[in-house]
Write a structure and sequence with these properties.
alpha+beta, four-stranded antiparallel beta sheet, single chain, two-stranded antiparallel ribbon, 6 strands
Length: 115
Amino acid sequence: MSRSTENTGFTCAYCAAPVTPLTNGSYRNHCPQCLYSLHVDLVPGDRANSCRALMRPVMVEHHPAKGYMLVHECLTCGARHRNRVAQDSRQPDDLDQLLTLLPEPIRKNRSTHGR
């Protein structure tokens, strides 16, 4: 049985910000302001996971083929998922929030660069 997928906007369950759907064909799975997500998908966009708990952003990693990936950890079951950083023109992910999730040596290098 195939499940239908949704690409809809939502209200963030963590910070209550209104979140618009992505326009690039991907599925938005996290808030662009606070970067929190919900543990709702088994397959991107299907909203079929029964956990439904908040997933906190824990780090940003770089994948050679997919670019920057935001890593979320479920506050209830501990599952971790990686998702592309959203660079949507209407509502991109907050760069300052993303920078706080970079590994420590990268953050230090960025803060001292150009001094």
